[in-house]
Amino acid sequence: MARVLLDTTVLIDVLRGRPAGDRLRALRRSGDVPMTSAINVEEIVRGLRSGEHEHADRLFDGLRIVDLGQREATIAGGWRRSHAQRGRTLSQADCLIAAACVTVGATLATANVRDFPMDDIRVEEWPVGR
C-alpha cells in the first residue's frame, strides 16, 4: 500500500474533471492512500471558482490531510537554507509540502516536478490539463 501526496496542480485537475481524477480513482482501487497537506488545501480554497466549493469539500473528505508541525518546519527550513546557499530560492509552501511527504513516507504527485529538487523525496510527474 503506497502513500501518494497530491500537489495542488493535481487537485485542480481532479476538481475540473480532467485525467488526474482517473488516476486518483485508480489509486483508491489499488488500495493506495491518497493524501494532501494543509498547504494544498489552502491553495485550492484560495482559487476556487463559483460552484466548486462543495466538490472541493467532497474531494478533501476523501483524502488524508497530513499535519504540519515542528518536524516538517525544520526539514523545510533546512532545504530553503541549503538551496539558498547555492543560489536557488525555494518557496516556503513547496518545502512544507515536500516535508510532509518525507514525514509520512509518501510520493509526491505533481505537474511541477522542477519545484521539488530536494533529494529526500520521491516525485512522480502527473501531467495535467490534458
What key attributes describe this structure?
130 residues, alpha/beta, Rossmann fold, 50% helix
Secondary structure: elements and pairs:
Elements lengths: L2 E4 L1 H8 L4 H10 L3 E5 H9 L6 H9 L2 E3 L3 H16 L6 H13 L2 E4 L11 E4 L5
Parallel strand pairs: 1-2, 1-4, 2-3, 4-5
What does it look like?
By secondary structure, this protein is α/β, with parallel strands linked by helices. It has one domain: Rossmann fold. Helix content is 50%, strand content 15%. It has six helices and five strands; from the N terminus they run βααβααβααββ. It has a five-stranded parallel beta sheet. Helix 1 packs across helix 2 and helix 5 packs across helix 6. It is globular and about 40 Å long. It starts with a strand and ends in a 5-residue tail after the last strand.
The separation of the N and C termini measures 27 Å
Bin the helical content. 40-55%
What is the CATH domain class?
A: Alpha Beta
Main sheet specs: 5 strands, parallel
Alpha plus pi helix count: 6
Order of helices and strands: EHHEHHEHHEE
Helix/strand class:
alpha/beta
Q: Work out the number of β strands.
A: 5
User: What integer is the average pLDDT?
Assistant: 95
Q: If classified by CATH, what would the architecture be?
A: 3-Layer(aba) Sandwich
Describe the strand arrangement of the main beta sheet, using strand numbers.
3-2-1-4-5
- What is the 3D shape? globular
Indicate the low-confidence ranges by residue numbers. none
Question: Going by CATH, what is the homologous superfamily?
Answer: 5'-nuclease
Strand content: 15-25%
CATH fold assignment: Rossmann fold
Number of domains: 1
Report the radius of gyration as a whole number of Å. 14 Å
